[in-house]
Amino acid sequence: MADLTYIILIILKVIVVFLAVLTGCAYATWLERKLLGHLQNRMGPTYVGPFGLFQPIADGIKLIFKEDVVPTQAEKVFLTVAPMIAFIPGFLTFAVIPIGHPINLFGHEIPLTVSDLNIGILFILATTSLGVYGVALAGWSSGSKYSLLGGVRSSAQMISYEVAYGLSLVPILMIAGTLSLNEMVAQQSTILHWFVFRNPVAFVIYWICAVAETNRAPFDLPEAESELVAGYHTEYSSLRFSMFMIGEYANMLSVSAVAATVFCGGWNGPFWPGPLWLIAKVIVFMMIYIWIRATFPRLRYDQLMDLGWKVLFPLALANVIVTGIILYLV
Amino acid sequence: MEMLIFAVAAIVALASAVMVIAVKNPVGGVLFLIMSIAAQTVLYIMLSGIFVAAFMILVYAGAIMVLFLFVIMMLNLRHADLGPDSLRRVKPLAWVFGSVLLAELVWVSMAASMPASGIDETFGSVPAVSRLLYGKFVYPFELTSVLLLAAIIGAVVMARKGS
To answer: Span B2-78+121-162: which CATH code?
Structure first.
């Protein structure tokens, strides 16, 4: 009996988190269009619903009814599998993100995370590292040169930035002395204890790499529209295309949630309940994403590689060493 | 329950490992290898080696296999480029080495004690693994890193030759 309730509870949590992230993805597109509009002196979506709030729903319905075009040169099996693979990793990350205090329900203590893994950070790094497959496969299987170039670019870019991405989190692990996200959140109980203030360099490296990992401007070379039409998803339409988009936004949400959890105290905060604080912090990070997109022009490909390997990687490595020395001395 | 998960994971791991060499399309081979790694990860988790499991995904599926895919995509190999006869000459060798490996595997599993003994609760946890890596096996571990570094430098030197 206890086993059964446990399994039902897990399934319920998975469904709730999945639906929440899916809704988050839809409204992240709304936030992006609205905020980007205002940053460029436009209004953004206004027609569908108040403040254009129903725009994501209208977009979704439109995409469903579009024709699903399959190019004759495409590898059909991989063309179908690629969007599915791109869809998953962003959602997987949320399995280990703690979203609040454990709550008491019918005498059971229910922790507010799908799985309290004691190696949460490694799990996140592992899922992030899988993100490249969807993009690379899509580029290869489309049978189009633009797509292939986009796919090859993205796999090179994501491998390069993954190294610094992983290394940027290592100093935080050393300071926290744990790999568990729950314990990290517990250690950052007030704003003074946030890890972002104890190692700001790590946060800056993390954030730059996170933007590059999610293929967002100014690192959106895999889909640079001025050179590659639309990059890896040039040949995609209809629902398959929307799966790429949802996957991309889920990835953005997940790196924002990781940034909030690891660097900015997670669900800790005064007055409001935990989940609200986490959502608020994720929204702030999403706004920074959009702000960055509105501010910086796209990097050239060699600049991108130089930044990854010659600046961020040595900096992250030095940060690990310096943090190690300081921790040893103090 | 546990037996069921083990059976599914083991069958998937073995079947996709066979598919790696059975499918014609090299990209398909890479994907099946990833699937096999994923199934092995499940086996590691069942052995409570969750740290090892995470690194299986992170290093093998997330980094090494991406490079495989990258290279295959760069060469843009399609079915036609890999004729059925391209591997004929090495086939006898493959049989020899395959049987040697199989014999070794049988020999090792005959010698092993089942179920595995001497595993305590901390087995596979982060402190346990790091204590082994940086304590008992620190010299082999560091020597391996030197070996890998040599390989990286070698690759860079070979890449520079052309220019």
So the answer is: 1.20.120.1200
